[in-house]
Amino acid sequence: MSEINKVLVADDSEINRDTFAAILGKDYEVITASDGLETMEILRSEGKEIKALLLDVVMPEMDGFRVMECMKEEGFENIPVIMILGVNTPSIVHRALESGAYDYICRPFDNEVVRRRVANAVDSVMQPAAAVADAIDAADVKKLSFSREKNSDLMVAVLGHILEVRNGESGLHVLHINLITRILLSRLIEKTDKYGITKEDIDIIATASGLHDIGKIYIPEEVLTKPARLTKDEFQVMKTHAALGSELVKSMPFQNEPLLKYAYDISRWHHEKYDGCGYPDGLVGDEIPIWSQVVSLADVYDALTSRRVYKNAYSHEVAMAMIFNGECGDFNPLLLECMKDCEKTIRDGIEEFNRSMQEFDPNVAKKCAH
Fold first, then answer.
1. What structural domains and CATH numbers belong to the chain?
2. Which of 115, 127, 182, 348 fits a 20 to 30 Å CA distance from 176?
3. Distance (Å, rounded) from C-alpha 263 to C-alpha 214?
4. Calpha distance 114→67 (Å, rounded)
């Protein structure tokens, strides 16, 4: 690069600001802001020199979406914005792109993805006018591709969400599972290539995780929403949801699609345990598909840290202790290592995601489920 371009990073997390500075510092002059108001102050003083803005969605004083509105009002819309998202959920991604974001990145951050997306954003500003038409065509293709992916992800998320609301829960459980699954799988492929999982696979598996409890559609409501612990007989009825769910997935069209393969495995075996004490098939160790093992661990963690009709939510620390002490069954030691490595990312990611969903109206989903 012949000259050092300036990139602005706006994030209320000091760790994230330092992370981006380390990733981008060799190629760019990185300026940082800790909230929305400071971001606008820097744009007003140095906006002509800033070639790209990495913008967190959730910040104090002024959130990322409000910052983008102010940028349009004050004539800074020519600066490409890469939104920093805590979770890759279709609704949030869609809102970011509809608001005018050039691109987005999600936690956990991949260094090469961050570098490439920032480089693309900077290049979009630096390219000569003659290339603008080609860029518009490329953007149209990108939007079409994103739209198709978004629709698939959204439909799975909606179905999983409605099932959760029918269960009497908040409906956020499937979205939490999606986030935790992504985090654990991303760490797993950093530690080993044993399972042959790619970064592209992670997106499909995380989407499929939304169908992990689809078999509960067959469970009688008096069992599903009972405001107390189940009896032995009721629990036997509840356990049938795993096999019933996999059979439902198996009956769906397009069985050659990877999404349904993962959904089958996850719905059937997300209650199996590493020592063979799970259900419905009593699989042992890596007889259980690794994606089913990951969703199982994510499911247990979120169940512990969420309020249920029969219990209050445990803290992150208590939930982690229960999992690692074996109180929730036996898990793959390698996955437990991954969870330990990423426990702060999981805790902070869930907290940030919940903050971003504060405007969500659960009554809408309840009506839809009814």
1. 5-126 (3.40.50.2300), 149-369 (1.10.3210.10)
2. 115
3. 9
4. 21
pLDDT one-digit tens code per residue, 56-71: 998 888 889 999 999 9
- The residue length of the chain stands at 370
Torsional class of 285: left (φ above 0), alpha (ψ -120 to 50), beta (otherwise): left
- Six-digit token string for 251: 């009956």
pTM (2 decimals)?
0.61
**What is the separation, in whole angstroms, between the first and last Cα of the chain?**
58
State residue 52 phi and psi, 5-degree precision.
-160, 150
Task: Give the distance, in angstroms, between the CA of residue 350 and the centroid of all CA atoms in the same chain.
Answer: 9
Question: What's the CA angle centered on 156, arms 109 and 137, to 5 degrees?
Answer: 60
Q: What pLDDT digit, counting tens, does each position of 7-55 carry?
A: 999 999 888 899 999 999 999 999 999 999 999 999 999 988 999 999 9
Q: What is the distance between the alpha carbons of residues 117 and 2, in angstroms, rounded to a whole number?
A: 19
